[in-house]
Design a protein that fits this description.
Elements: E1 2-7, E2 15-20, E3 25-32, E4 39-44, E5 49-55, E6 63-68, E7 71-78, E8 87-92, E9 97-102, E10 108-113, E11 116-123, E12 131-136, H1 142-160
Antiparallel strand pairs: 1-2, 1-12, 2-3, 3-4, 4-5, 5-6, 6-7, 7-8, 8-9, 9-10, 10-11, 11-12
Length: 167
């Protein structure tokens, strides 16, 4: 299934919508303002917070915690050394590990587990609003894979210094 992540450009706070391929709004991503750490809340269409993304303050490299009901589900971090394209790693609390590898231009990413591609992230080159697609091959972890796509986008935009309109 394909999910679309769309930024809302003209808002007083940072917000994005996650839509299905049929343009049905499924989740809203809100940045919580006035916090020491960068925090995003994933809210479903009924208004229930289903997950949160918390960027750890004062780390050498980007480390993001993915939480559900106060419990840490996963730890997302950027690998320090890379030759071509960005590389990220995800370590779950149950011991599973995922690898996220990008291409040379940082526009296409694959989320992999032991060589199997679970999702593909594709960012559009030319759009008025920042938008990208997440093709999910594993429906049982669909929400988690979309959350990882938002983490990738946040880290890339944070590294470029474009923190005003993008996650």
């Amino acid at each position: 299934m394909r999910y679309l992540v769309r930024d809302r450009m003209f808002a007083f706070h940072e917000e994005a919508w996650i839509e299905s391929e049929h343009r049905e709004k499924l989740y809203r991503v809100n940045k919580k303002l006035f916090r020491l750490r960068t925090t995003f809340a994933f809210v479903d269409s009924r208004g229930t917070v289903v997950a949160s993304i918390v960027k750890k303050a004062f780390t050498f490299h980007h480390t993001i915690l993915i939480k559900h009901d106060g419990q840490v589900l996963a730890r997302f971090s950027k690998k320090n050394f890379k030759l071509f394209g960005d590389r990220f790693k995800v370590k779950f609390s149950d011991g599973r590990r995922l690898r996220i590898a990008g291409n040379f231009w940082d526009r296409e990413f694959d989320i992999q587990h032991e060589g199997t591609t679970l999702a593909h992230i594709s960012r559009r080159w030319f759009t008025l609003r920042d938008a990208y697609a997440v093709d999910v091959m594993s429906q049982q972890d669909a929400l988690l894979l979309v959350i990882l796509a938002v983490c990738v986008d946040h880290v890339l935009q944070d590294a470029k210094g474009e923190r005003l309109t993008n996650f």
